[in-house]
Amino acid sequence: MALIVQKFGGTSVANTERIRNVAKKVQKELKKGNKVAVVLSAMSGVTDQLVGYTKEVSELRTAEELAEYDTVVASGEQVTVGLLALALMSMGIKAKSFLGWQAGIKTDKIHSKARIEGIDVKVIKDALKKGFVPIIPGFQGITDDNRITTLGRGGSDTSGVALAAALKADRCDIYTDVDGVYTTDPRINPKARKLQKVAYEEMLEMASLGAKVLQTRSVELAMKYHVRTQVLSSFSDEPGTLLVDEEEVMERRLITGITYSKSDARVTLIGVEDSPGVAAAIFGPLADGEINVDMIVQNISEDGKSTDITFTVAKTDLKRAIAAIEKAKKVKYKKLLTDSNVAKVSVVGVGMRSHAGLAQQMFKTLADKGINILVISTSEIKVSVLINEEYTELAVRALHTAYGLDKK
Ligand code: ADP
Ligand code: ASP
Ligand code: MG
Question: Sign (positive/negative) of CA torsion 11, 17, 22, 25?
């Protein structure tokens, strides 16, 4: 008998009919003789609506305000867990819902993007032992001083994997509205191909670079605790995509996927004084404000006196980033420019470790389409470029074809 954690996303529980469909997926797993624990998202659109309400009444600047934000936005999942328990009970299946705090999901205190620190699985284990299907809301937890937290958008994936790790489950099945991880977002490129297997490290890069099919943190946890995780569809019985170690990926390929993200903005400081300590003076205040900086370029100055620095931050942090720089007295520059109409397009693949020329192929493909590159950044297994947002789809499709990823 195996223990399976099944996680269902927002579209999978979008209405009561779909919740009944989820109940059937649970029943099917039980009929195989397995034990099942379920993690659910809120109905699709609900979290957005709840976030909208909080913004109507607050600027959400302080930690106390973000704690109340969490209280509001965590509520969407409370509805779906109760409804699934009822649907299962009506089918004669023993089921019981537990909220994050009841299920012992302990997090740190960083409201709106908390991290799970541990799960006290006693309650869930007891329920399983007594023959119940425990149903837990994703996305939420509790601090050690009893405040409700949420894990950042898309956080139910992380709840699912964390629960599977804590229960030492045999598998974590992430059910969503596509039947696996594709070479790129199938919604913007119909030629995207489903991957049978994807290496943890590649999935980690793809998730952090915009492939929202899995929240980045969930992949980190799957990798760290070696949780056998697969992504599959709630609406079909097609085999999905399994996360595996690099050596287990049998298909020979250099590039695994193309991702894009429209969530960053560009900041350029023109005429920055070119002297030691300038970068520290700029990025120090940003770090102090918990503002993540992603891509950075600094030019070598021609006259030895002044230079330009460009970097990207999340669009949601842009206002705070500008304020932090304007307040930092040590930073001397002529002009501050910002641009929110940018997108980051990335090429990911472990093949980059051993093959030269893959970055060049990216630059040439974009040049052939007349797409200008604003910023470049690389790591061992990815190359990212920042481009004008309106060319995102064109760039993704062109790169997908250029690296031979199009479905036959
Ligand atoms: P859920 O509500 O089930 O968590 P999400 O909307 O968070 O679902 O994630 C699924 C979506 O991720 C898909 O509908 C798809 O558009 C998007 N996506 C982006 N990149 C990829 C990719 N490489 N493979 C599969 N889906 C992707
Ligand atoms: N309901 C939350 C969100 O929309 C968490 C999730 O669906 O994973 O972000
Ligand atoms: Mg999701």
Answer: negative
Interatomic CA distance for residues 397 and 34, integer angstroms = 42
Put simply, whether the predicted model's pTM sits higher than 0.85 gets the answer yes
**362 contacts 385 by C-beta, under 8 angstroms:** yes
Contact 266, 309 (CB under 8 A): no
d(CA 319, CA 308): 20
Ligand 1 neighbourhood includes 160 CB (under 6 angstroms): no
Please give all residues whose CB falls under 5 A of ion ligand 3, grouped by chain where several chains appear: 9, 154
Q: Is 42 in the pocket of ligand 1 (CB under 6 A)?
A: no
Interaxial angle between packed helices 216-224 and 200-208, expressed in degrees from 0 to 180 and rounded to the nearest 10: 160
Q: How far apart are CA 209 and CA 227, in angstroms?
A: 22
9: left (phi over 0), alpha (psi -120 to 50) or beta: beta
Per residue in 133-185, pLDDT tens? Answer: 999 999 999 999 999 999 999 999 999 999 999 999 999 999 999 999 999 99
Q: Find the ligand nearest to 158 CA.
A: 2
Helices vs. strands in the chain: H and E counts, helices first: 12, 20
Ligand 1 contact, 177 CB (< 6 A) = yes
Kindly state the tokens that stand for 180. Answer: 């696996």
**Alpha carbon of 293 to ligand 3 centroid (Å):** 24
